[in-house]
């Protein structure tokens, strides 16, 4: 843990996720570059934050990292696979299997209970309902929400809702957790709690990526990517990644 | 199959989460199917009552009416016409009646003016008329041999006229026929095959000839034929009655008229079916409308599902299954409702319940097709939503 930060990501045979001169352009007649020629490698065990002001391309980056969007040019590889070459069902499966999302606004489905929301991540996997439910309850218990399993989002506090969203993200045991301002809608004590959980989520097999504009939050990560005008302007190794 | 089970569960929970809206969009298929089931059921049941009555009354009654040469006042049959008809080998029974056109029947003396303006038809009849008509007495007895032999002044009322006179069952009552009192001895039940008899009063041939001075020649003969020979019998009766004489005879088979009436309901049935189809179509448009709005309202949910790995086709099928549930459930509820309506109305109207259960799956299938077609566009719309646009990141 006391290896000095080098600013260079550790080299591995297969990066978990790789962006190779990726651009994302919006609009047809007037082209707007949301991302311009960005290259980035994310490896297992990393706890990365992406910071930058509004309009710097953070959200576009998040969509691309989460395979919710495809680049206009360049290549994105998840576990070595070029996602542009996959059809929708395969890409969706890849997303469901390898990436867990956490959003600023929690994005829970209002008519489902806590456990029902977690279960959405495990649907369509040829899994017995009983097994699925057990895994989801276990994930909720891991985050201290065992007693809330049958509560609906409106019956829970913001912090609790965000932990349900976290449970939904980790229940699939993804390779990468992708979080968008995960503490943005929380008060400071809940935010601290959620950040603590994030820190604990990193493991040698898994990467955690957090998009934020809050520098204090960004500095809890091991590696900080700074963005401006659709380009990466800084890549700082703050701490050694988990091994 | 487990993936399909998951899909069913997701669609079902989506519908259950919005119960009122689900019920509202279900109203289309419910009303449509209920309308079609009850339309067919009610018309068939009404017809069923008529058919049941027909089979009870028999379709083998022939009514022969005397017709004179042009201009003759009161055409009649020869006196022995009943025997002549009974000689026909296919005839199982015959009974004649004579119209007493000059006789005014009064329930009370003071009602003379009214009954002169609207006279009650009085007929002379023989003892076996109810037997030939296959109609029971609803009270008292029919005219019998004793009435003829003892020259009683007895009268039997048709059901309609008994009602008009306010006659109470078993009541000792006399009515006035051209100034002579006659005792009411019974009331004949309604005669669906010849409704004219419902409003008639009946006396013996002896009374007709001796009190009202008729010649005893009948005007109508009611004939029962052997089953299956009705048409042939009706054809041969004029010859049998006439035997070379000048009498003209027209015959009719009254059950044919009733049967035609039973068939006439088809038009009504088709109109009601059309109304049901219309309800179904409008309901389908309602489903398409509400589901389209629902897709917009639920776009965050769609984004979340896409983010956790549900493919476009899964999202599409989720919404298509919701409309399929609406069709199946709405169709089923509609069918149950339709059957209930048929039972309720038939019980109330005293009909025999006839429900074409074999047709119900067709209506339900139709509701299903309409619902799925209506759900197609919203489902495609849902599948095409871009998750990034609905999740509002960053």
What does this structure look like?
The complex is a heterodimer of chains A (243) and B (394). Chain A is an alpha/beta fold and 243 residues long. Chain A has a single domain (17-237), classed as Rossmann fold, CATH 3.40.50. Chain A has 7 helices and 10 strands. A 6-stranded mixed beta sheet of chain A has the order 6-7-8-3-9-10, sandwiched between helices. Chain B has helices spanning 2-16, 19-57, 81-86, 112-117, 129-133, 145-149, 159-165, 205-210, 230-242, 254-264, 266-297, 299-307, 312-349, 360-384, 387-391; strands at residues 61-67, 91-99, 105-106, 122-125, 137-140, 154-158, 174-177, 180-188, 201-204, 220-225, 248-252. In chain B, helix 1 (2-16) packs across helix 13. In chain B, strands 1, 2, 3, 4, 5, 6, 7, 8, 9, 10 and 11 form an 11-stranded mixed beta sheet that branches. With 394 residues, chain B is of the alpha+beta class. The A-B interface holds A 54, 58-59, 62-63, 66, 68-69, 88-89, 92-97, 101, 103-105, 107-112, 116, 120-121, 123-129, 168, 172, 180-181, 211 and B 2-3, 5-7, 9-10, 13-14, 16-18, 300-301, 303-314, 386-388, 391-394.
List keywords for this structure.
heterodimer, A: 243 residues, alpha/beta, Rossmann fold, 6-stranded mixed sheet, 4-stranded antiparallel sheet, 10 strands, globular, disordered N terminus, B: 394 residues, alpha+beta, 2 domains, 11-stranded mixed sheet, 15 helices
Please state the structural category of chain A. alpha/beta
Q: Structurally, how many domains make up the residues of chain B?
A: 2
Biggest β-sheet strands, sense, barrel of chain A:
6 strands, mixed
Q: Helix and strand string of chain B, N-terminal first?
A: HHEHEEHEHEHEHEEEHEHEHHHHHH
Rg of chain B (C-alpha, Å): 34 Å
Helix/strand class of chain B: alpha+beta
How many separate domains of chain A? Answer: 1
Count every helix of chain B, treating DSSP H or I runs of 4 or more residues as helices: 15
CATH fold type of chain A:
Rossmann fold
List the total number of helices of chain A: 7
Q: What quaternary form is this?
A: heterodimer
């Amino acid at each position: 843990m006391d290896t000095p930060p080098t600013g260079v990501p550790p080299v591995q045979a297969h990066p978990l996720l790789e962006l190779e001169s990726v651009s994302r352009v919006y609009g047809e007649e007037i082209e707007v570059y949301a991302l311009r020629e960005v290259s980035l490698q994310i490896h297992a065990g990393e706890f990365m934050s992406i910071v930058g002001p509004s309009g710097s391309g953070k959200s576009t980056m998040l969509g691309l990292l989460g395979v919710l969007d495809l680049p206009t040019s360049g290549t994105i590889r998840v576990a070595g696979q070029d996602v542009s070459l996959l059809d929708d069902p395969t890409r969706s499966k890849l997303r469901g299997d390898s990436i867990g999302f956490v959003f600023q606004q929690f994005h829970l489905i209002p008519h489902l209970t806590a456990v029902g929301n977690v279960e959405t991540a495990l649907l369509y996997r040829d899994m017995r309902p009983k097994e699925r439910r057990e895994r989801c309850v276990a994930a909720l218990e891991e985050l201290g929400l065992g007693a809330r399993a049958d509560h609906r989002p409106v019956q829970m506090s913001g912090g609790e809702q965000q932990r349900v969203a976290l449970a939904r993200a980790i229940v699939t045991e993804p390779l990468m957790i992708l979080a968008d301002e995960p503490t943005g809608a929380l008060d400071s004590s809940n935010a601290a709690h959620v950040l603590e959980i994030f820190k604990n989520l990193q493991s040698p097999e898994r990467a955690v990526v957090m998009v934020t504009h809050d520098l204090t939050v960004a500095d809890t990560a091991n590696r900080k990517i700074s963005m401006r005008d659709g380009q990466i302007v800084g890549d700082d190794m703050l701490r050694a990644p988990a091994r | 199959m487990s993936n399909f089970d998951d899909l069913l569960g997701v669609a079902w929970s989506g519908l259950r989460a919005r119960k009122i809206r689900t019920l509202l969009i279900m109203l289309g298929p419910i009303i449509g199917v209920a309308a079609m089931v009850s339309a067919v059921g009610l018309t068939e049941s009404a017809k069923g009552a008529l058919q049941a009555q027909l089979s009870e009354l028999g379709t083998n009654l022939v009514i022969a009416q005397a017709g004179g040469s042009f201009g003759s006042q009161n055409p009649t049959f020869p006196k022995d016409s009943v025997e002549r008809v009974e000689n026909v080998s296919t005839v199982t029974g015959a009974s004649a009646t004579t119209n007493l056109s000059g006789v005014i029947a009064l329930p009370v003396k003071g009602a003379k003016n009214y009954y002169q303006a609207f006279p009650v038809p009085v007929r002379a009849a023989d003892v076996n008329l109810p037997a030939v008509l296959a109609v029971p007495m609803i009270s008292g007895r029919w005219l019998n041999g004793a009435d003829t032999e003892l020259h009683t002044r007895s009268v039997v009322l048709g059901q309609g006229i008994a009602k008009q006179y306010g006659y109470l069952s078993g009541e000792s009552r006399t009515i006035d026929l051209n100034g002579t009192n006659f005792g009411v001895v019974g009331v004949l039940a309604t005669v669906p095959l010849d409704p004219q008899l419902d409003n008639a009063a009946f006396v013996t041939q002896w009374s007709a000839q001796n009190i009202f001075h008729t010649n005893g020649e009948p005007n109508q003969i009611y004939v029962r034929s052997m089953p299956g020979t009705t048409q042939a019998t009706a054809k041969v009766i004029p010859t049998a009655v006439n035997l070379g004489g000048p009498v003209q005879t027209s015959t009719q088979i009254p059950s044919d008229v009733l049967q035609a009436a039973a068939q006439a309901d088809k038009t009504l049935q088709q109109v009601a079916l059309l109304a049901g189809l219309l309800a179904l179509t409008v309901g389908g448009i309602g489903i398409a409308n509400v589901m389209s709005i629902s897709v917009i309202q639920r776009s965050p949910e769609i984004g979340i599902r896409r983010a956790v790995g549900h493919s476009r086709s899964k999202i599409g099928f989720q919404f298509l299954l919701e409309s399929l549930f609406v069709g199946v459930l709405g169709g089923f509820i509609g069918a149950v409702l339709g059957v209930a309506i048929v039972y309720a109305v038939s019980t109330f109207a005293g009909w025999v319940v006839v429900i074409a259960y074999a047709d119900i799956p067709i209506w339900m299938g139709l509701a299903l097709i309409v619902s799925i077609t209506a759900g197609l566009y919203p489902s495609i719309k849902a599948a095409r939503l871009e998750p990034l646009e609905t999740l509002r990141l960053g």
